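Hey team,

Filing this mostly as a record. A colleague (T.K.) asked me to run one chain through the structure pipeline before their review meeting, and I want the input and output archived in the tracker in case anyone asks later how it was produced. No errors, nothing strange. Just documentation.

Input sequence:
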Amino acid sequence: MKSASLIQRITVSLLIGYLFWEIAVRIWSWSLPSNGPLIRADLIFIYPMLLLFVSLSIYQYFKFQKPKQ
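Output structure:
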C-alpha cells in the first residue's frame, strides 16, 4: 500500500482543522443576538481552499494508482 502524498496529508489536516473551526464558530454564534443575520465571510476563503485540496487529492489518488494485474 502506497503512503499518502504531501498534498493528501495537507488535505486531511485542513479538513480536521475545518471541523474544529466550525465547532468554534458554532459556539461563538450562540453568543450573538438571535434576530441578526450571521454573515460568514470566512467561508469565502475556506471553501475554495478545501475544494482545491480535495480535488488535488482525488486527482492524485486516481492518477498515480497502479493498475492491478
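Quick notes for T.K.: The helical segments are 6-29, 43-63. The radius of gyration is 17 Å.
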